[in-house]
Amino acid sequence: MIEFTTIMLFYQYIFKDYIAKSRFWILIAVFLIFCLLNATYIQKWTIFNTYPRTLESIIVIGSSLYYYYKITKQSLYIQIEKSPVFWINTAFFIYFSGSFLLFTVSNYILPYSFEFNMMVWQFHAFLSIIKDILIFIGLWQYRKA
User: Is 12 helix (H, G, I), strand (E, B) or coil?
Assistant: First the structure.
């Protein structure tokens, strides 16, 4: 819930000229309510919360794609590799795109094999490392600017 809120506040800032701030707050509130309902009535607290993580992945991937769409429609030429937002957005896009399937089916396929379970979570760890490196590059570019 904290991760989703933080990411949506990031996109709220990025899209402040295109999307009303209130839409992000409504989206955050609905997502948080869904997380609580999921934990209370749908999935137990003791298993991986696949439904909220899948929904979060879909929303973040959609936000990332919308950012890419917006920068391709800009008439000004910018050096994209020097844009901190580009690096951070790319980090979110790669991580959530790669983890989407894992989040969707994890409670169904992971109990079958310990070895497969370890491979899946190693892939997830790899995606997390890539995400963290790209966010670091974005923050480094922000510091340079």
Answer: helix
